[in-house]
Amino acid sequence: MKNTFRIISFCLVVALLSGCGLTKNQIVKTQSFGSATTSIGALGEEEFLNIRNGIIEMNKELVSIDNTKTSNSLVFDKPTFTEPTSERIAACKALKLYGELLVQLVTEDRSENLQKAANKLIDNTTVALKKDLTEDQKVAINKIIVGLGSFWVEKKKADAAKEIIPAYKQPVDDLAELLIEDFSLEEGTLGYLKAYNTTAKRLKNASMRLVNAGNKYSVLERDRAVHAFVIAEKAIIKSTELSKKAKKAIDGLKKANNELVKVINKQEYSTDDIKKYAEQIQELVNVYQVLTN
């Protein structure tokens, strides 16, 4: 009799907790969005460092082949100075951590890992946006503090996901907005990729004068100019292609973020934007691997 009672009680608890969890579709879409957002955050974090280093290297080449330049002619890392670069890296880290947090919430992961990810997410979001989260957003993140026992952990993780995703929608949109200009090559923009592209064009023009000058310069000078020309041309191609893919991916991030809120709230929705966003991120990652190798 006692065993029967225990079995019935156990089944009731399971039924109760599973009813409070996430549906299969919610889990799949949250994991898809989370994985894609982790990828775009990681890519951005790496690329801002690459852009800064690339600008420094191209300016070094420019001084080397252009004898009108002096040690005072260039600020080698302009405009990708240390502080603005670190702010952009914080924004990308926040997106990466948010994506990782969502994936951990809908998969089997240790609760202490969730708590560490939540703390890092708050810190990087605050640095990137230069303001504190609202109380509602902080409360949502604090839902990560889960109880003991595997069933209660899963229930609380589901509750946390249902609260965090709507509460964190605006910070994610704000982080995306921070990155839009940095990956734009449109006239009048002042982002990092534009600076990278402009530096590359400056180097290309300077190196072309030497390459096209015939036997006016020595073989060694010409070789240096050809090397600079190739670096500049690769940078121009990279910035052009990366801008196209990144703009679509960041626009897709905002649309998919809005859609995920509807999914988690069980509102009427289509999951086309989340699917498209995941595909755009994969295209971006593939193109990025080609351009950086």
If you had to describe this structure to a student in words, what would you say it looks like?
The chain is elongated. The chain has one domain. The chain has 10 helices and no strands. It is mostly helical and about 290 residues long. Helix 2 packs parallel to helix 10, helix 3 packs antiparallel against helix 4 and helix 6 packs across helix 9. The chain is about 75% helix and about 0% strand.
Rg calculated over all Cα atoms: 25 Å
Straight-line N-to-C gap: 68 Å
DSSP summary, beta strand count: 0
Q: How many domains?
A: 1
* Helical content class: over 70%
Mean pLDDT: 83
N to C succession of SSEs: HHHHHHHHHH
Give the overall shape.
Answer: elongated
Provide a count of the helices: 10
- Derived from helix and strand composition plus strand pairing, the structural class reads mainly alpha
The largest sheet, given as strand count, sense and whether it forms a barrel, is: none
What fraction of the residues are assigned to beta strands by DSSP? under 5%
Give the low-pLDDT segments.
Answer: 1-19
